[in-house]
Amino acid sequence: MKYLIMVLQIGTLFLFNYIGQLIQSCFSLFIPGSLIGMLLLFSLLSLQVIPITWLQSGVDWLLKDIPFFFIPVTVGVVQYINFFYGKGSLLVLLVIISTFFVIGITGLITDQLLKKGEAAHD
Questions:
Q1: Residue 47 CA neighbour count, 13 Å, CB half
Q2: What SS3 state is found at 28?
Q3: What 3-state class would DSSP assign to 76?
Q4: How far is it, in rounded angstroms, from Cα 87 to Cα 112?
Q5: pLDDT (tens digit, 9 = 90+) per residue, 32-73?
Q6: Burial letters for 73-112: b for 16+ Cβ neighbours within 10 Å, e otherwise?
Q7: pTM of this prediction?
């Protein structure tokens, strides 16, 4: 029963992805459909129209196994290794620097939100 619930929860995530793609194609928007679906899901979760418990175990399973979703990207990079010779190596440096920048900004924002949440509970 637990696995059926997880499949339904993951199916719900795919449904929001499909709805976002449908909205994108119907209105010829420049924003990707997957992003529209994610924003729609985020809005419904924020407004508590959909309780997080309806999706929690499926999302937890996907997050637990997220490194497996990066294997195709890694294989793609290895397949085009010739691109990284010469100036392509600057791209690697840029990716590393931007990754640390994103991690730092995310950490600062999370820290501020946690402090704000603790202050609200006091």
A1: 7
A2: coil
A3: helix
A4: 38
A5: 999 999 999 999 999 999 999 999 999 998 888 888 877 887
A6: eeeeeeeeeeeeeeeeeeeeeeeeeeeeeeeeeeeeeeee
A7: 0.61
